[in-house]
């Protein structure tokens, strides 16, 4: 289990090579985690498509990794607005979380 902060961002074309919307249950992980063991083409990164469970208090959400977050600290997760709103409200901007790979 990792500890970091959750933020949210507006979706579009992702590092995994597909386009998503703000209502999709997807996330971006930090550049160092995303690029670990990755080929030169990010569309083929092993992280693409992996599921993680993000937890805050008694709430949790399962999302698929579909992007990398270059501004995130190592264990932060950048969530789609739909996923972020399962754990809090957008007005918070960011909050502490724990998460794990499934």
From TrEMBL:
Gene3D superfamilies: RlpA-like domain. InterPro entries: Expansin_CellWall, RlpA-like_DPBB, RlpA-like_sf. Pfam families: DPBB_1 (PF03330). Keywords: Signal. It comes from Protomyces lactucae-debilis. This is RlpA-like double-psi beta-barrel-protein domain-containing protein-containing protein. It comes from the Eukaryota. Residues 2-98 form the RlpA-like protein double-psi beta-barrel domain. The lineage of its organism: Eukaryota, Fungi, Dikarya, Ascomycota, Taphrinomycotina. CDD domains: DPBB_RlpA_EXP_N-like.
